[in-house]
Amino acid sequence: MIVFNLSCSDCDFSFEGWFENSNDYNKQIKQGLVSCPSCNSIQIRKGLMAPNVAKKSNSKDSKRNKSIASNVKKLKKIIEKEFDYVGDKFTEEAKKIKYGEAKERAIYGEASIEQTKELMNEDIDVLPLPFSTKKTN
């Protein structure tokens, strides 16, 4: 099925027409079978339409999204292997490291927006991670 935007040449009324294909539309127009629902005129013309084109599943966007997801998984593995997980003690531990009260090392965990702002105000670098840091084991 194909949907055409149609309009009446006599009264400028716009409406949709559903046809099997373009040939079916042309055939019905020639036979006077398509009429305006407003004034019953058979002086009908096709209007402008946007094509209905389906996006390929192997499009560049799809490949890019898969690549990004793959990179996030790799990043998560690296961080979980190389960094110390400190959970909700992230803010406290980051401050201890900054002020020399704890061994300097890479850490990750959870912090609220307020805690993150507090760390930034103390010139402690923080970076939001693109994945959940909650440990379940």
Summarize the structure.
By secondary structure, the chain is an alpha+beta fold. It has helices at residues 22-30, 60-82, 90-98, 113-121; strands spanning 2-8, 14-19, 44-46, 84-87, 107-109. The protein has a 3-stranded antiparallel beta sheet with strand order 2-1-3. It has a two-stranded parallel sheet with strand order 4-5.
Protein model, in words:
This protein is 36% helix and 17% strand. It has helices at residues 22-30, 60-82, 90-98, 113-121; strands spanning 2-8, 14-19, 44-46, 84-87, 107-109. It has a 3-stranded antiparallel β-sheet. The chain is rod-shaped and about 90 Å long. The model has no long low-confidence stretch (mean pLDDT 87).
* Beta-strand residue fraction: 15-25%
Q: Characterize the largest beta sheet: strand count, sense, and whether it forms a barrel.
A: 3 strands, antiparallel
SS-based class = alpha+beta
Distance from N terminus to C terminus (CA atoms, Å) equals 54 Å
Assembly of the depicted chains: single chain
Number of helices: 4
Overall average pLDDT:
87
Q: What shape does the CA trace take?
A: rod-shaped
Report the C-alpha radius of gyration, rounded.
31 Å
Query: In percent, how helical is the residue content?
Result: 25-40%
- How many domains, as an integer? 2
| Sequence of strands across the biggest β-sheet | 2-1-3
Q: How many strands?
A: 5
SSE topology string:
EEHEHEHEH
**Low-pLDDT residue intervals, each spanning 5 or more residues:** none
